[in-house]
Amino acid sequence: MSRTKVSRASWHLRAGAIVVGWLTALLVATLVHPFVPTSDWLLVHLLVLGAASTAILIWSWHFTAAVLRVPDSVTRRGQVARLAAFTGGAVTVVTGMRTGIWTLLLAGGLLVAATAGWHAWSLLRRLRRALPSRFGATVRYYVAAGLLLPVGVALGVAMGHGDLPDALHAQFLVAHALLNLLGWIGLTVIGTLVTLWPTMLRTRIADRAERTARRILPVLLVGLGVAAGGALSGLMLPTAGGVLIYLAGVLLAAAPHVDEARRKAPVEFSTASVLAGMTWLAGCLVLLAASIGTATDWTQAAERVGWVTVPLIAGFVAQVLLGSLTYLLPVVLGGGPSAVRATAAVLGGAAAARVTAANVGLLVCVLPVPSLIRVLVSLVVLVALASFLPLLVRAVLIARRPLAQPLPTTTPGSKRPIQRRVGLAAVGLAAVLLAAAGGVALDPAAAGVGPSFDGAGGVHATGNTTTVQVSITGKRFVPDVVDVPSGDRLVVVLHNTGDETHDLVLESGAR
Q1: pLDDT, tens digit, 9 for 90 and up, residues 251-279
Q2: Do residues 160 and 173 touch, judged by C-beta distance below 8 A?
Q3: Residues pairing with 478 in the sheet
Q4: β-sheet with 476-478: strand ranges across
């Protein structure tokens, strides 16, 4: 193995460890989130600001060096400095939000924004100094994404201060989500897939891919500008219209990728996960536009955006991130052809089961199902996504200890891989169905298959009234579970002890 390859593998191991650290923190936070105030905010930012943003800093520079044909090790000192600064800023943002110390939130936000701007400037300087390149236009996606993140961060820091009027806070929240998810992450993903998607499929790039990449970026930027500008101006219909313009850009950008997928089906975990992620992006954009366009006020619009954010992050961001890393890590870790095949096989293990469980489970979670079913199915989704971490540890061990013999290859034309994929997909589907069935068995009344206790199921009124005092701690209602004697009338007295507007919604739908 050459010294260059050793250096590259060592660098990606160290840099990738930061991403793994964020993903591990996300897994822990997901397991304990019912007991953590503001857990929803924490889960979103551990993935978006932590794992996904760190991966963007690492891999956007890597792909820039690849398409511009310059060694990415030339300016590795700058990469290290940016990663350190961004990680420090992200940790400070999380700490400031968790402790309620706005000065920490401000300091962390400034550091994150400055690092993103530095990253964009470095990419632009590299682009201007490089010789003309066929896919140099994809670097402009990274530059635009890096310039949008500071704006999104500024809106988030402003919201964290807590003294904004309710309507303005809601408008900032919508613009913040659009710029960070569709700008910083969305533009980076779309630009990267121009070259990464056919490479993952191991097929040639579509003839129109280069031309499409150049033409679509302005469409995406116009959509983002109209959507974010509409939100900040208090105009709902332009905001929804901007999201639709962005959706049109996404669909046009996907056209060459459809041609590539027709030549080589995306059946491996890496390609199937990315395909599922982009499908969730398109679906969530439709839902986002409809949710904002039909909202009665900005508070309702922000509430709906928050609801759409969950499938957008779990379906789009998480799956694209894990799918891309599944393909990229074996390549950069190296270790010889046998080791690369072995690490790829490990990271892509049980692909059909994992992808099916994650996507069918996530679809169940966004449907109006009883909470217990949603909780149990979400655990299946969590296992399907989090399985990447132990597989990654095993893959790294294999890469550092190359195999003595090459892995056996499958005979071309064999039907066994197809049968195995179908069987594994059935396993993933069965896991989701069993979890849903468990939710029904544990709470049949909520699922509508058992006795009802709404006054029409034979429960006699006692004439008594149970009064419950509910207060707010952080973003949680205390208590969040109430036991009421059968037949009693329930009266909830809500004390909003926080400094934000909240909606109290019972499991029955009453609010």
Answers
A1: 999 999 999 999 999 999 999 999 999 99
A2: no
A3: 471
A4: 476-478, 465-473, 489-495
| Distant-in-sequence, close-in-space partners of 463: CB < 8 Å, separation ≥ 6 | none
Alpha-carbon gap, residue 54 to 12, rounded angstroms: 12
Which has the closest alpha carbon to 8: 68, 57, 58, 53? 58
Strand partners, 472: 477
Q: Which residues contact 445 (CB under 8 A, 6 or more apart)?
A: 451, 452, 453
Q: What's the Cα-to-Cα distance from 332 to each of 9, 115, 270, 405, rounded to whole Å? A: 6, 25, 15, 20
Question: Could you give the CA distance from residue 251 to residue 208 in angstroms, rounded to a whole number?
Answer: 14
Name the token pair of 133.
Answer: 């390149």
Determine the Cα–Cα distance for residues 431 and 433; give it in Å rounded to an integer: 6
The 10s digit of each residue's pLDDT in 152-182 is 999 999 998 878 898 999 999 999 999 999 9
Contact between residue 103 and residue 95 where contact means Cβ atoms under 8 Å apart: no
Extract the tokens encoding 151: 């704006």
Rounded Cα distance between 299 and 446, Å, is 29
What's the pLDDT tens digit per position in 407-444? 444 444 445 678 888 999 999 999 999 999 998 888 77
Tokens read off for 267 = 């059946």
Phi-psi region of 498 (alpha: psi -120 to 50; beta: other; left: phi over 0): beta
- Residue type at 49 in one-letter notation: L
Statement: residue 299 has pLDDT above 70? yes
Which residues are CB-contacts of 408 (< 8 A; sequence separation ≥ 6)? none
pTM of the model: 0.85
Give CA–CA dist 485/428, Å, rounded: 40
* Residue that has been written with the tokens 């950008």 in this structure: 253
Residue whose tokens read 């710029």: 179
Helix (H, G, I), strand (E, B) or coil at 438: helix
